[in-house]
Amino acid sequence: MSYEVTVDEAVARPTAVVAATTTWREFPAVWPGLLDEVWDCLRAAGIDRGCRNVMLYLDDVPNVEVGVALDQPCPLTGRVTASALPAGPVATTVYRGPYAGLGAAHQAVADWCAGHGWPPAGPRWEVYGPHHDDPAEVWTEVHWLLRPAG
């Protein structure tokens, strides 16, 4: 699969998240419970759809924030806190297909950054399209925050 990578200027987007420190090996088993906590909080506030799921990887540990992009204010409870997706220059691509293949999209962005003189700043995130039972209809935006090219 080939990926088109573009550079855009991201604006901070408010999120409701549960933050965690984990390992890459443990993360696949950890994130569903974190996302469930966020959706339980939203449903308790009367929101049951319309918020796109997000995963923000702050570093390579990984320290992560798993949750949703908020389009409206919402009371947050428990471990769910307010945060935001980063603002600034980003390299972006769109991945289409089952989530297990997202690593290839991240690698494509990393390769593009290396080949175009845009050093990554560290944080990177995924914004998920609406759920579909057909993996061919699934799409995910992959964003890498950039340092200025130099």
Automatic annotation (TrEMBL):
<dbReference type="Pfam" id="PF06445">
    <property type="entry name" value="GyrI-like"/>
</dbReference>
<dbReference type="InterPro" id="IPR011256">
    <property type="entry name" value="Reg_factor_effector_dom_sf"/>
</dbReference>
<feature type="domain" description="AraC effector-binding">
    <location>
        <begin position="3"/>
        <end position="147"/>
    </location>
</feature>
<dbReference type="InterPro" id="IPR029442">
    <property type="entry name" value="GyrI-like"/>
</dbReference>
<protein>
    <submittedName>
        <fullName>GyrI-like domain-containing protein</fullName>
    </submittedName>
</protein>
<dbReference type="InterPro" id="IPR010499">
    <property type="entry name" value="AraC_E-bd"/>
</dbReference>
